[in-house]
């Protein structure tokens, strides 16, 4: 790196490398509180049921994994005792029944996603049982997006064919990195050949949209070897790719302490890895989707990006097809009629609530008018890399310069955002530059009222933005 580039990178890192949310929701989950529980959730479901003709989105969390990957930040349960997973399936079915009883008129799904954990921890027959139970109570729209996360190391061709027969049309596979040294350090050994074989099975079974997950910022990742992983991913030509920034949060996930911290790439290397991914996927003809996804131009995600209908929720970037999302399973977060409702993360509490006929809600949050406005602003920035201020004025009946005087001053005044070249301001819009897209979380943080209100926390809460 030549000297002036080095000093520019150092300046950017000094300004923007700080703890910050990934904005899969606004307000973020740290604002959820115990004052929102079963009763409040039932009220929101009743309000949702009044919109009988609107389709819903449904998320089901299947948390089991046979082993833990050291980088994993998901809500998972590691066990080889199949009885635990069998009991959980019965509880999920109880929760589904309870949910359906509270939505007697609202029974159409335009989107369903099963995440984890590893949903394919379950045998094909179990997955089929859950799918059929849902399909008996809810009807899928003809163009419904039905997706599932699969770990290629534990997923069989039979499972893939069975999922396709049931009606799943999107698959997401975890990869992270093909470099054996990285794989060894994070306890996830998965060959290129195994991944390629499962992808071939998926295509043969009729899947037309497959996503691969990568992570940058893992131990021992260096640009020279990451290049090889990117080349290998490109030979597979997945329709979608997610390249997540490694969220290193050992204070929340103590198993991350087993990662050799000295092997984690420095922030400037992390930025270089991201720049490398941006370059590789753009040159290969992929469209950049929001912050960290790429899609082939004819994939629905790219089409949604092009027509401004891209959406972001707890599943990441999606094609928005429903205003309300209900969730099943431990840690699942519903987003219903202006409120978030999160299930307990603990199996015993989950089972006890359902045995009692209660929704296993642990925490939640009812958005007020200011939250709804800011949620829209942050979602559009994350999805479109631009914000149409006039559109916001029309939708919310506000004057943008009056409502966001402080934020506009910070973003477009003499502060770093404009001088660093992260954004441009026109009469109607805030536009992120290609550099600004890399720091979109920081730009969104300027609009985050809850974050601004907080005194600096004494212990860390969020992962770093770089
Ligand atoms: C539930 S897992 C994927 C499904 C399946 N269990 C697997 O591993 O293939 C979801 C994805 O989250 C991402 N992920 C997990 N922990 C992460 C972390 N700490 N930082 C960034 N991404 C993470 C990984 O890319 C992973 O593939
Ligand atoms: S990355 Fe996937 S397989 Fe690994 S621990 Fe997390 S959920 Fe389980």
By DSSP, the count of extended strands is 19
Provide the helix percentage: 40-55%
Please identify the oligomeric state: single chain
Query: Which regions are unreliable across 5 or more consecutive residues at pLDDT < 50?
Result: none
Question: Structural class of the helix and strand makeup?
Answer: alpha/beta
Strand order of the largest sheet: 9-10-8-7-6-5-4-1-13
Major sheet description: 9 strands, mixed
Q: Which hetero ligands occur in this complex?
A: S-adenosylmethionine, iron/sulfur cluster
Q: Determine the mean pLDDT.
A: 93
What's the helix count? 19
Our estimate of the beta-strand percent is 15-25%
Distance between the termini: 19 Å
How would you describe the shape?
globular
What is the rounded Rg? Answer: 22 Å
Main features:
466 residues, alpha/beta, 9-stranded mixed beta sheet, 3-stranded antiparallel beta sheet, 19 helices, 19 strands, 42% helix, 21% strand, binds S-adenosylmethionine, binds iron/sulfur cluster
């Amino acid at each position: 790196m030549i000297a002036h580039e080095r000093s520019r990178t150092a300046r950017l890192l000094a300004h923007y490398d700080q703890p910050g949310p990934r904005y899969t929701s606004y307000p973020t989950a740290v604002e959820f509180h115990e004052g929102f529980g079963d009763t409040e959730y039932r009220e929101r479901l009743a309000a949702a049921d009044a919109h009988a003709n609107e389709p819903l989105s449904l998320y089901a969390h299947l948390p089991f994994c046979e082993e833990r990957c050291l980088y994993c930040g998901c809500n998972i349960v590691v066990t080889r005792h199949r009885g635990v997973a069998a009991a959980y399936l019965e509880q999920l079915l109880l929760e589904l029944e309870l949910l359906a009883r509270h939505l007697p008129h609202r029974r159409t799904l335009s989107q369903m996603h099963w995440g984890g954990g590893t949903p394919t921890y379950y045998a094909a027959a179990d997955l089929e049982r859950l799918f059929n139970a849902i399909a008996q109570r809810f009807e899928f729209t003809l163009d419904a997006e039905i997706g599932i996360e699969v770990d290629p190391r534990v997923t069989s061709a039979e499972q893939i064919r069975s999922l396709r027969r049931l009606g799943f049309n999107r698959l997401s596979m975890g990869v992270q990195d093909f470099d054996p040294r990285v794989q060894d350090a994070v306890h996830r050994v998965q060959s290129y050949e195994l991944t390629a074989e499962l992808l071939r099975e998926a295509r043969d079974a009729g899947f037309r949209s497959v996503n691969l997950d990568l992570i940058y910022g893992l131990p021992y990742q260096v640009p020279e070897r990451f290049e090889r992983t990117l080349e290998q991913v490109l030979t597979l030509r997945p329709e979608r790719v997610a390249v997540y920034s490694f969220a290193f949060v050992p204070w929340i996930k103590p198993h991350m302490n087993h990662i050799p911290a000295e092997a984690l790439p420095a922030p400037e290397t992390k930025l270089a890895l991201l720049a490398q991914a941006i370059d590789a996927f753009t040159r290969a003809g992929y469209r950049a989707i929001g912050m960290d996804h790429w899609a082939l131009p004819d994939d629905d995600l790219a089409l949604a990006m092009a027509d401004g209908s891209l959406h972001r929720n707890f599943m990441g970037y999606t094609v928005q097809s429903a205003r309300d999302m209900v969730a099943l399973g431990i840690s699942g977060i519903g987003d219903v009629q202006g409120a978030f409702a999160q299930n307990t993360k603990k199996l015993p509490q989950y089972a006890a609530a359902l045995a009692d006929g209660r929704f296993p809600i642990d925490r939640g949050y009812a958005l007020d008018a200011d939250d709804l406005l800011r949620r829209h602003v942050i979602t559009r920035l994350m999805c479109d890399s631009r914000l149409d201020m006039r559109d916001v004025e029309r939708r919310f009946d506000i004057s943008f310069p009056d409502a966001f005087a402080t934020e506009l001053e910070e973003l477009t005044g003499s502060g770093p955002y404009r001088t660093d070249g992260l954004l441009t301001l026109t009469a109607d819009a805030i536009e992120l530059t290609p550099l600004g897209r890399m720091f979109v979380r920081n730009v969104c943080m300027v609009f985050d009222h809850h974050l601004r209100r907080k005194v600096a926390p004494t212990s860390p809460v969020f992962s770093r933005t770089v």
